[in-house]
Every structure is written in structure tokens, then in C-alpha cells.
Amino acid sequence: MSSLREVLQKHLKQHKLNARLLAERLGVSYPTALNLVNKGTVPRSESNREALQKELGLSGEVWATLLAASQRHAVAIPAEGPLNLQQLLLKQMLTLGLTERTLAAKADLPYPTVTGITRKGAVPRGDALSRLAKELGIDPAVLELAAGRSKANRSIRGSAPEMVDTEAEPSEGPTLAQLALDVITRSGLSVAAFAREHQIPYLSLTRLISDGVPPSRQTALAPLAAALGLSDQEFAVALNRSSEAPVPADRHKASEIAANPFQAAIRKLMEEKGLSTVGLAELAGLSPITAARLVKKGELPGRQVTHQKLRSLLGLNESDYDLLLARSRQTGDGSTHSAQPAHSAPSAPVTALTPNPPPAPPQQVQHVPHVQKVSQEVVLQVASAASAGHEDGSEMLALISRLNPGQRRALHQFLLAFA
């Protein structure tokens, strides 16, 4: 059976494509396309797998056989004849476009139970087979027969069939891979940048995150322990847990670690589309610095045109986008996370809301000499509305909602002068 790399390179030659054009057609990042072309690396994302299958024009069964033969733990699935449990499970799982993690979640089984079958040919205990049969649409009796073949094959080879406890996860707590990815996500750095900053071998770190396999050399383990900020005992427990049952880090869990919901949504978008910070900047019309602040620190942009592009990228309507911004502003500190509503004018004249504001006493302006004149006028109008004593504060809130980030900071400084 041909490998994914061989099939893909043949496809590129026939259609006169290169890795960059393939990335555009699949909607993946250029590095992801390079790994596909040069190494035949099986995509981790279900959407990326689906796009690649469509590009190659392969049927479900042919695609499943190709993926099974191309993954790190290669498994040959014969076109004819009875299949053992590992072969049958892989074939049906990949035909349906599922990954091991999604299958485990759907069947309500521990992730190591599924990988034990797909990667080691193990036979699970308990009701795991019936759960898997239900999710994969396989007759339970057929799956039982396949499990019997796996046991028989093990007996012929002179080894007892490996059994997997379907109820017991590895020792409780996050794996070393998940701990590493969570810390990297919080730092706002790429994996490569994090590795350079902490002098961790890049290949060892990427293997830990992608495959769950911890480094074996002390030259990699020592700087990793220091970078994660764990005690010797905590690091030893996490290392032992990952050594016993290597589990890849869950990038979706890492994307939830964010300063605000807007940053989490952007990070998830970047993961799904395979975007780098620079790629996001290009798509959204952001400067690289603004994009980096949004991705790494959760700082919301202030330009109206930027919000329109981000709303389009996130696929949200105006009300949902504004709600996301409002929740993110509540999470923030009121300055760096502030942003105006996506569809409101960024510089609408506040005088339209507060006609004929009373003149401000001269001494009030003297408290904020660093505020620009235009910001002073807006600040005084908001302060005037606040002092008018509106019971529900609606007019003042309406005014504040129309301010841009610079005007909000001016208001903040003005109010601090009287605190």
C-alpha cells in the first residue's frame, strides 16, 4: 500500500501544484502543507483530513487504508479477508473522519483505551466494545469476532493479549504534554520561541506536545522542568504519568487559557485555520504588533475596520460579536481590553447625545494637562452627563460606549483626579 506522502506527491505532479498552492487549496498553513508534502505527516485536525481527502478524491475506505498505513504506528488493512479488532476499528474510525480523541469522547471512553486498541492492538475490558460498536455503526457481534481474532493472533505469537482497563485513566492530573502546552499558551510564545527562550531542544518539545512522549535526556528535562515552574516532585509525577501512557496535549484546552473570551475565540480560529500571528494580521488588516498584542495579551483593537474584518473571520453577526466584545471588556481591566461596538461609529460626535453641555470649571481641566484638547471636551461632556443625575445612567453609558480607547483613558485619568 502506498503511503500518504507518495500519493500526495503524485497528485501534486499531476496537477502541477506546489506546497504553497496546496496550502491555499486546503486552507491550512504553509508549514502544515510542507509537512504533508515532505514527510507525509497525517493531519491531526478532522477538518484538515476532510479537506485533504476531498483534494485527493479518495473514497472513504481507500482514504482510511491510506491513513492507517501512513501514521506513526502504521497498520496495514487488507482489502479482503477478516480483520482483527485493531484493523476494523481503525478502518471504520478513519472512514467516518474521526480521530482517536473524538471517538473516545463520543464513546465516553478514556483516550488511552482507544489508543491502546488503535496503536497497540489491545483488547479492552468491560463494555468498551459495545460503546465503540454503537458510535462506529458496527454490529457488536462483528466487533466481538474481530476481538477474538486479535486474541488468537496474540496466542499464536506466544504472548497473552494485552488488556486495557476501560474505566481507569492514567494517574490523575494533567500530563506533562498538557502542562507544557498550557504554559506555552499563557506565555503567548510559539513553541519554537518558547524552546529557544528556555533552551529546550525544539524537536523534543514538539514531540512531547504532539505525541505525548516526554524527552529522555536530562539536557532536555532539566530546562523543561525549570520552564514549567514545577517542584521536583510535581515534575517527577507528571513525567512518570506521561512515560506510562503518552497522551498528546489537547490544543482546545490550551485555547481556553485566555485573558478574555475574545482572545480565546481568536486563538481557536487560528488553530482551526492553521494561522500564525502574521497570517492573522494579514487577514484582519492588523499590524503585526496589534495582532501580537491581541493573540498574546488579549488586547482588543480599537479600529472600526479591524473589528469588521475580525467579525467576518469569526463568522458572527453584529449582535453576537458585540456581546463577545462586551464580555471581554468585563473580563479586562477597563483600559487595554476596551473596545467600541463593532458597528458603532468610532468617532461619532458626542454633542449629538448631550446638546449644550454646561461649561466646565477651569480648574477641572487643569487636573489633566496631559490630555489632548479633543479628549478633554469629550471627557467633560461625559462628566456633565454623570453629574446631571440620571437615575438609570443610560445617557452616560451611551456616551461612554461611543468613546474610542484614547478617550476612555482620558476619562479614566480625569475621574482619578477627583477620587
Description of the structure:
The chain is mainly α and 419 residues long. It folds into four domains: 4-164, 434 Repressor (Amino-terminal Domain); 176-253, 434 Repressor (Amino-terminal Domain); 258-331, 434 Repressor (Amino-terminal Domain) (Orthogonal Bundle), CATH 1.10.260.40; 351-416, no CATH class. It is 63% helix and 1% strand. The protein contains 25 helices and two strands. The chain has helices spanning 4-15, 19-26, 30-39, 46-56, 60-70, 85-95, 100-107, 111-120, 128-136, 140-156, 176-187, 191-198, 202-211, 218-228, 232-244, 251-255, 261-273, 277-284, 288-297, 304-314, 318-331, 362-366, 373-387, 394-401, 405-416, and strands spanning 123-124, 163-164. A two-stranded parallel ribbon has the order 1-2. The protein is globular, with a radius of gyration of 28 Å.
Overview in brief:
The protein has four domains: 4-164, 434 Repressor (Amino-terminal Domain) (Orthogonal Bundle), CATH 1.10.260; 176-253, 434 Repressor (Amino-terminal Domain), CATH 1.10.260; 258-331, 434 Repressor (Amino-terminal Domain) (Orthogonal Bundle); 351-416, no CATH class. The chain has helices at residues 4-15, 19-26, 30-39, 46-56, 60-70, 85-95, 100-107, 111-120, 128-136, 140-156, 176-187, 191-198, 202-211, 218-228, 232-244, 251-255, 261-273, 277-284, 288-297, 304-314, 318-331, 362-366, 373-387, 394-401, 405-416; strands spanning 123-124, 163-164. It is an all-alpha fold and 419 residues long.
Structure keywords:
single chain; 419 residues; mainly alpha; 434 Repressor (Amino-terminal Domain); 4 domains; two-stranded parallel sheet; 2 strands; globular
